[in-house]
Amino acid sequence: MVLRSATKKAVAESPKRLANLIDLANVPSTLREVVGQSQISRLGCFIRVWSYIKEQNLQDAVDMNIVNCDDKLKRILLGKDQIKLAELPTLIKLHFPKQPK
Which residues form the DM2 domain (predicted)? Predict the structure, then answer.
């Protein structure tokens, strides 16, 4: 896999930030229903949730930046009926424990 120079620079400048994205963590049972694993990284979780959204065709037909949540997604995304795609990483991050500094 070839990393872009901007990505290489970001990794070199903040290795802790990258570690927070790729370290495995235990996930709650509500998130396990969508993800299908008991341990996953934050980045892996985001990718699984995104693929679930695509598989279930949950993107809004008019505005592709909006996700219409089904029951499973509502349980993990604070019970919201709709979310913007920009909110998704923040809402997923809430399920992962804070890393000590």
Answer: 20-98
Instruction: Return the domain boundaries, the chain.
Output: 15-93
How far is the C-alpha of 32 from the C-alpha of 30, rounded, in Å? 5
CATH number at 15-93: 1.10.245.10
For 35, list phi and psi in degrees, rounded to 5: -80, -40
> What values do phi and psi take at 100, rounded to 5?
-65, 145
Nearest to 54 by CA among 74, 29, 24, 34: 34
- The whole-model pTM stands at 0.70
Is the separation of the CB atoms in 81 and 74 below 8 Å? yes
